[in-house]
């Protein structure tokens, strides 16, 4: 595979996606979800101030991310990874593969990814026992992070994690560290720097190109392997890091009616993605048969193309 990325020397191990504490704790409590006030280090969630060095890493991350994630870059990445010629592997194997990846700069999380996946899925399962598609969505939502691994191109952090945003239209000021978009080649391109840019009003997010990362990659993997998961599941996988939309309410002028419906599920999902992190460790072998049965139910073939 031809790599055209600038390889960076820094390795944050960031997952910057779950960046802000959701406010609606009452709604969670109503579902029986006990909102913890402290993470596994005994610190408040998303408390970046406790480590200014980490904050510096986050800024540096977004400087690169906003500078390099332009329309042409995203288009090339979607084409390259859309070929699905990197690996053949079943989903459970992929979960295990991610086990070695720890998001170092995520201040809430110092556990292997497989625990984050299972904790998210199991917390949802407890509160939404009948929505088995949502359990599986919890399990697979971050599997796109394999992009960090050598077999998948070993992409730099800024091309895998962090908040995502549309390209092809003006960058909204609600995007975190907005100032760094000024270095993006699209910033001064008149085709891309208007409210709608290249998109018609309410065209649907499916027609909008998002910055490249683990969200869009896992969406492509699920889609191309012909999953039967409902559209809400694919929407969660694809947009769970789209904080400008689901936290700030930006870019709504690009959404269609189906997006509006699906966004409700992202709001639900996001709370589990963030708050399930400090729960006790899940016994992997104990829950494995349940999740394997869900994979079988929602994916037609055991081995997926990646
Ligand atoms: Fe994620
Ligand atoms: Fe996650």
TrEMBL record:
Pathway entry: Polyol metabolism; myo-inositol degradation into D-glucuronate; D-glucuronate from myo-inositol: step 1/1
UniProt: Fe cation binding residues: 116, 141-142, 214, 240, 273
Reaction catalyzed: myo-inositol + O2 = D-glucuronate + H2O + H(+)
Entry's localization field: Cytoplasm
GO terms of molecular function: inositol oxygenase activity; iron ion binding
Gene Ontology annotations of biological process type: inositol catabolic process; L-ascorbic acid biosynthetic process
Residues that, per the record, bind substrate: 46, 103-105, 145, 162-163, 240-241
Cofactor: binding comment: Binds 2 iron ions per subunit.
EC primary class: oxidoreductase
Swiss-Prot/TrEMBL cofactor(s): Fe cation
SUPFAM superfamilies for this protein: HD-domain/PDEase-like
Pfam family, one: MIOX
Chief localisation class: cytoplasm
Any one GO CC term of the record: cytoplasm
Keywords on record: Ascorbate biosynthesis, Cytoplasm, Iron, Metal-binding, Oxidoreductase
InterPro entries: Inositol_oxygenase
Its EC number(s): 1.13.99.1
Annotated family: Belongs to the myo-inositol oxygenase family.
Protein name as it appears in the record: Inositol oxygenase
């Amino acid at each position: 595979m031809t790599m055209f990325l600038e390889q960076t020397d820094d390795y944050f191990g960031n997952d910057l996606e779950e960046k802000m504490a959701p406010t609606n704790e009452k709604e969670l409590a109503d579902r029986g979800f006990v909102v913890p006030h402290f993470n596994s280090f005994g610190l408040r969630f998303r408390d970046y101030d406790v480590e200014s060095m980490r904050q510096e890493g986050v800024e540096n991350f977004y400087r690169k991310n906003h500078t390099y994630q332009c329309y042409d870059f995203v288009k090339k990445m979607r084409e390259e990874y859309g070929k699905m010629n990197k690996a053949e592997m079943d989903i459970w194997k992929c979960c295990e593969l991610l086990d070695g990846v720890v998001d170092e700069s995520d201040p809430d999380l110092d556990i292997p990814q497989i625990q984050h996946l299972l904790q998210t899925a199991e917390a949802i399962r407890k509160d939404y026992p009948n929505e088995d598609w949502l359990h599986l969505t919890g399990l697979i939502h971050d599997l796109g992070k394999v992009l960090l691994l050598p077999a998948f191109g070993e992409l730099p952090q800024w091309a895998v994690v962090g908040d995502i945003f549309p390209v092809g239209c003006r960058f909204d000021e609600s995007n975190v560290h907005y100032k760094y978009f000024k270095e993006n080649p699209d910033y001064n391109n008149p085709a891309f720097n208007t409210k709608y840019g290249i998109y018609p009003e309410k065209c649907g997010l499916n027609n909008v190109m998002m910055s490249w990362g683990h969200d869009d990659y896992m969406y492509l993997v699920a889609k191309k392997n012909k999953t039967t998961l409902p559209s809400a599941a694919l929407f969660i996988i694809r947009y769970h890091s789209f904080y400008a939309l689901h936290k700030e309410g930006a870019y709504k002028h690009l959404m269609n009616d189906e997006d509006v419906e699906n966004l409700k599920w992202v709001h639900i999902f996001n709370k589990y993605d963030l708050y399930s992190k400090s729960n006790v460790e899940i016994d992997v072998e104990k829950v494995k048969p349940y999740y394997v049965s869900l994979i079988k139910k929602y994916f037609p073939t055991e081995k997926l193309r990646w």
